[in-house]
Every structure is written in structure tokens, then in C-alpha cells.
């Protein structure tokens, strides 16, 4: 949801099109600079949070610049401070989850070393925000470029190192995971994928979905979202996610292309809602 005119307006925009949950940016997604929240912002946001209390949970997406795997000392520090600022602001606003892409490694670097750096940064962040209940969500990625997080094994490597596992979770992005090579386009393949997820990571860590169709083919590593039913995933596989009783209370976020009037969001929401309780193999 857009935060134009104030973060608190994201609730009204979400409610106007029937959202049950919303994701928003709480600082500039493409800048390192972010001024502190003023008291008025916090009060207005919390007032609307109470008013629209059927919109739950609240998810913020961190800045695209943040890379906790960065080896460059200056960028590593900027990433750490940026993520710390995200967590502090989320806590001030009463936001439940901060979603993040795990990071990008150096081109020829060993995955394990880079994943360990992410874990180390997360441990420091959690220690520095000990009084907070904000949960950090690692989003499954497309595997484009030097992405980390496109394999389930990457995620558990990070999680295993953490002390406070109550404050970590996974966001499963349908577009990203499909182009990363996870096939869920038939009911059998869908069930096999979740068996694998549970075996490697554990279903208990799944906290959110990003429900996006994909422009790219299976295993193409092409990170391009498109409207539900208009991409290579197609409409039918989204039925499996929407009708899986295990995930009834897990939020689903649309990150499909959008205009200013929310028309595309309404179409995509209606498409998803039309698939509930209509299973097809």
C-alpha cells in the first residue's frame, strides 16, 4: 500500500479495497537517509491501527539497498544501520513483521561464508533490539545475479546460527521461488515442495506469502512479477496456496504491477478470492 500523504493512510487504502493484511514501506526504499519518525506520525499510525484492527498482521518491507552479506565495510555498516532503523521504526509503529531479502554475495564467494555474515548481522540486530517483538522475515528470492535465499538450504543455514528463533521467519514469494526452480504447478508437485520445505526449514517458520505471478519460466532466475493468471505460473496453482488449511492464518501480500487508482490490486484480489474453495489437480 502507498504511504503518500502519511503512513497511516495505508490502512484506509487497504480497507477501501477489502484487504485483510497490508505491506508498506516505513522508510525510503531506495535511499540510505531516513529521518526519525515524529510523534504525530506514530500517534496517527497507531490510531488507525486500532481503528482498522481487522487488518492484520502488518508487514513492512525493508529498503532495497540493505545487503547484510556485503563485504564492503562502508556498505556493510550502512546496511546494518539501515536495518536497525527499520526494526526500531517498526517497533515504534507496532508493526508485526519486517520483510527482507537475505542479501547478495560477491560473485566468486562461497555461499556458506556469505550466509554466515548475514547470520552474524542478524544476531547483532536482535541483540540491539532485545525489547522488541518485531519478527524479521527472510524472503525467498529468485536467484538472479548473486542472490542468496533462492534455495531452502540458504534459509536454514541462516536460521540455524541464530539464538532467538522466535524473531525469525520466512516469506515465501511465489514468483521468486518458481523462477528459482521450485515447481508447484500441479497438486503433487505442490505437496512435494512443501514436504521439502518442511524437511529442510520447517513449516513453523513460514509467516507470510508474496502472491505474485511470474514473467519468467521455471528455473529462469528472472525476477519479474506480473498479474495473477497472466504469467508462467498461471492461475490454477494459486488455488493450492489459498485452499491449504495449514496456511489459513498466514498473510498473503500482492506485489503485482499497480497504478494510482488501485484498479489492478482490486482485479488481482478478486482473482485470488475467486479461487478459494475451488481445488483442481
Into which percent range does the helicity of residues fall?
A: 25-40%
Low-confidence stretches: none
Apparent shape: globular
Strand fraction band?
5-15%
| CATH topology annotation | TIM Barrel
- Can you tell me the number of structural domains? 1
CATH architecture tag: Alpha-Beta Barrel
* Number of H- or I-type helical stretches: 9
Helix/strand structural class: alpha/beta
Corresponding CATH superfamily: Divalent-metal-dependent TIM barrel enzymes
Total beta strand runs: 11
Distance between the termini: 33 Å
Kindly report the average pLDDT value.
96
Q: Could you name the CATH class?
A: Alpha Beta
Adjacency order of strands in the biggest sheet = 1-2-3-5-7-8-11
Task: Describe the sheet with the most strands.
Answer: 7 strands, parallel
The secondary-structure element order is HEHEHEEHEEHEHHEEEHEH
* Rg value: 18 Å
Could you characterize the architecture of this molecule?
With 281 residues, the chain is an alpha/beta fold. It has a single domain (9-274), classed as TIM Barrel (Alpha-Beta Barrel). It has 9 helices and 11 strands. It has helices at 9-16, 39-51, 73-93, 111-128, 152-161, 174-179, 187-200, 237-242, 263-274, and strands at 22-24, 58-61, 97-100, 103-104, 135-139, 147-148, 168-173, 206-210, 213-214, 225-226, 252-253. A 7-stranded parallel β-sheet has the order 1-2-3-5-7-8-11. A two-stranded antiparallel ribbon has the order 4-6. α3 (73-93) links the parallel β2 and β3 (97-100).
Amino acid at each position: 500500500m502507498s504511504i503518500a500523504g502519511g503512513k497511516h493512510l495505508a490502512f484506509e487504502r487497504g480497507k477501501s479495497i477489502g484487504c485483510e493484511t497490508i505491506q508498506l514501506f516505513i522508510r525510503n526504499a531506495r535511499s540510505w537517509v531516513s529521518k526519525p519518525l515524529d510523534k504525530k506520525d506514530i500517534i496517527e499510525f497507531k490510531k488507525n491501527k486500532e481503528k482498522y484492527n481487522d487488518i492484520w498482521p502488518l508487514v513492512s518491507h525493508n529498503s532495497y539497498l540493505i545487503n547484510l552479506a556485503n563485504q564492503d565495510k562502508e556498505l556493510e555498516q550502512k546496511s546494518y544501520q539501515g536495518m536497525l532503523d527499520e526494526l526500531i521504526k517498526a517497533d515504534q509503529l507496532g508493526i508485526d513483521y519486517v520483510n527482507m531479502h537475505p542479501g547478495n554475495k560477491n560473485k566468486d564467494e562461497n555461499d556458506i561464508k556469505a550466509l554466515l555474515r548475514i547470520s552474524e548481522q542478524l544476531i547483532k540486530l536482535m541483540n540491539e533490539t532485545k525489547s522488541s517483538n518485531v519478527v524479521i522475515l527472510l524472503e525467498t528470492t529468485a536467484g538472479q545475479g548473486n542472490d542468496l535465499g533462492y534455495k531452502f538450504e540458504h534459509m536454514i543455514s541462516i536460521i540455524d546460527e541464530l539464538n532467538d528463533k522466535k524473531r525469525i521467519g520466512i516469506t515465501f514469494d511465489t514468483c521468486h521461488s518458481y523462477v528459482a526452480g521450485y515447481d508447484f504447478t500441479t497438486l503433487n508437485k505442490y505437496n512435494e515442495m512443501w514436504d521439502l520445505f518442511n524437511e529442510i526449514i520447517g513449516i513453523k517458520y513460514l509467516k507470510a506469502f508474496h502472491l505474485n505471478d511470474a514473467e519468467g519460466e521455471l528455473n529462469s532466475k528472472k525476477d519479474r512479477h506480473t498479474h495473477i493468471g497472466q504469467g508462467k505460473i498461471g492461475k490454477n496453482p494459486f488455488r493450492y496456496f489459498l485452499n491449504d488449511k495449514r496456511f489459513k492464518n498466514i498473510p498473503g501480500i500482492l506485489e503485482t504491477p499497480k497504478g494510482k487508482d488501485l484498479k489492478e490490486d482490486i482485479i488481482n484480489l478478486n482473482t485470488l478470492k475467486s479461487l478459494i474453495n475451488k481445488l483442481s489437480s
